[in-house]
């Protein structure tokens, strides 16, 4: 995976269990980085992804922001 260090963009952890690698990429580049890694190294299979713990936290924040968790 390509890793860049742009200080203005939050860095998102990307993990690949098959390659046993973890890297951080700017938020704006996450989708492209994951797609590129999976295409180049795993024949397009969805192996690399945003760290599951981070993805869960983001989903919770979005659900809260949208009022989906309100009763």
From TrEMBL:
- Domain (DUF8149): give its ranges: 5-71
A Pfam family that the UniProt record links to this protein: DUF8149
Provide the protein name.
DUF8149 domain-containing protein
Lineage, uppermost ranks: Archaea, Methanobacteriati, Methanobacteriota, Stenosarchaea group, Halobacteria
Species of origin: Natronorubrum bangense JCM 10635
**InterPro entries to which the protein is assigned, alphabetical:** DUF8149 (IPR058462)
